Amino acid sequence: MPNKYLTYLNERFPLQSHIPIIGIFSFSAICYALMADGVTRFVSVPQYVAAFLLTATTFFLLRISDEFKDHEDDMLYRKYLPVPRGLITLTELKRIAWGVLLFQAILLLCFPQFLITYLVSIGYMTLMYHEFFVAEWLKKHQIAYVLSHMAIIPLVDLVASAAYWATDGGYPPQALVWFFLVSFFNGMVLEFGRKIKSPEMEEEGVVSYTKLYGLKGGVFLWLAVLTVTLISAFVAAKQINSPSWVYICFLRLYGLALLVALAILLKPGKKRSKAIEIVSGVWTLGMYLNIGALPFILQ
Fold first, then answer.
1. Interior/surface letters 148-187, b for 16+ CB within 10 angstroms, e for the rest
2. The pTM is what?
3. Where do the structural domains in the chain lie, given as residue ranges?
């Protein structure tokens, strides 16, 4: 692969971080669905690999879609990004996207149980690309924008979990609704966490929650979403009779987040703003490990 494509991946879709997270994301969705039905045997390796590949490539398509959707703003305010600075063109990304879609089509021919959920997620992604045909309204209502775009995450969860429940034309377990809710709020935790910035990190034309609501407002908003995620995770864990250590792990993650939030409120700075983004990633990874993956493995 030419260096420029590797550079693009490293900057916009770093495989070293995305592959483990997506792998755990897919694994946890399947594990939770299995535990919701009281099944103790994991799906076959080919089914899991198919779920992982569909999930990973769908998120990559979402990345490419955003390059097109945000191109005008990127050219104005973020000229350091790969497309605006000329490292790679939108035409090249379009060709890559068609190649990914072809690869997904082959996967779906081999594993047709994913087809319906995949089409739902791709259909929703298409609406996202068109900003639900209310782009100007969404730009003026940032929270509505975030809520509408985060729904793609539980939809991709649905794709992954189909490795289990859709194999024989079945239906998803009802308890999965709570897992999807946790995924939805995890996405919001990541979104808010990466857009809480110290004053010297703010960029013209780039949305941040500290710019919209101030430092305290942005941090408290992040904490509010963490709290809702924690409550949702408790309910989701209860649905599958998770052991007590799962709840303790959730509370420890929450305690870590509180400490980081307090640190940035007491002494704002670039490093502490970055810490919120890092802790958001740790929180999300910890949530997926403890809500589905580890309870299934250790049962």
1. bbbbbbbbbbbbbbbbbbbeeeeebbebbebbbbbbbbbb
2. 0.94
3. 1-170, 174-299
